[in-house]
From TrEMBL:
One of its GO terms (molecular function) is DNA-binding transcription factor activity, RNA polymerase II-specific. GO terms for biological process: cell fate specification; heart development; positive regulation of DNA-templated transcription. Residues 1-163 form the T-box domain. This is T-box domain-containing protein. Signal peptide: none annotated. It comes from Lasius platythorax. GO terms for cellular component: chromatin; nucleus. Keywords: DNA-binding, Nucleus, Transcription, Transcription regulation. The keyword Protein biosynthesis does not apply. PROSITE patterns: TBOX_3.
Amino acid sequence: MFPTCRVSFRGLKSEGRYAVLMDIVPVDNKRYRYAYHRSCWLEAGKADPPAPARLYVHPDSPFTGETLRKQVVSFEKVKLTNNDMDKHGQIVLNSMHRYQPRIHLVRCRHTDDNGLHISDLQKEEHKTFIFPEAIFTAVTAYQNQLITKLKIDSNPFAKGFRDSSRLTDYER
């Protein structure tokens, strides 16, 4: 996911155990298109049927409250796809639809880390955080060449797309 969502927490019990999760939900029931001549997004009809909802459990979960107070939790490993048949646990989105990432902090009831499996937030003691500035339109191709360049330059997984003539000796 680009750009990456990063969060920090405070006010947690130091010895408490917490899982940090993300899900991404539709903002509305509309489909959008990009108008190049106006350089903006326009409504383009009714939304496609929603993709199956998935929770992404941060791979370092569970954390202690002490750890969460001292570090920023980054969701740089979240993978998005438009393939609703995905079997790899990626978050499935419909292209040209608007979405809102949500961060969930779940208090772990068990001290055993091996059994961390959260599939229904309603059954867990949790708090959800929503950041309206993180709303985005899912696309399969960027609508602006400058954004494409920014993603390639910023994404550690896009090394094969970079122009090797721009790299320093160290980067090569």
